[in-house]
Write a structure and sequence with these properties.
The protein is α/β, with parallel strands linked by helices and 118 residues long. The chain has a domain of 80 residues. It has two helices and eight strands, in the order βββαβαββββ. α1 packs parallel to α2.
């Protein structure tokens, strides 16, 4: 998820994502299976999703005993192999972006996309 330009973001750390041509930042949110926040990783929009997810997963593994990751298909590919080899994680990817609307940790319920670890 990226943050649009002119929304108070510091221009020195903001990036441009060429695929969408969006100024701003990407946020990677990791929750547990109950929807409770584990880690948040914020990067410039120019970072690839799989590279940003690596940092978020590293922070989550350092904070909790995560064994399995549920993520949308956009995070599949080399990231799955890296997570299995480096972090000893198993992975489940959904065909469509993962939608979780029953999360008690967010007002209005849930979140769209991102990494969901449990």
């Amino acid at each position: 998820m990226s943050r649009p330009a002119g929304s108070g973001a510091d221009d020195a750390t903001a990036g441009v994502f060429d695929g969408k041509r969006v100024n701003g930042r990407k946020r990677f949110i990791v929750t547990d299976t109950l929807g409770l926040l584990v880690t948040v990783w914020v990067l410039a929009a120019s970072w690839q999703d799989r590279d940003g997810a690596k940092g978020a997963l590293l922070a989550a593994v350092a904070a909790t005993p995560i064994r399995h990751v549920f993520a949308d298909q956009g995070f599949a590919g080399r990231l799955v192999g890296w997570a299995a080899a480096m972090l000893n994680l198993t992975w489940t990817s959904s065909g469509n972006p993962l939608i979780r609307r029953d999360s008690p940790s967010t007002p209005g319920g849930g979140w769209l996309g991102g990494v969901w670890a449990g």
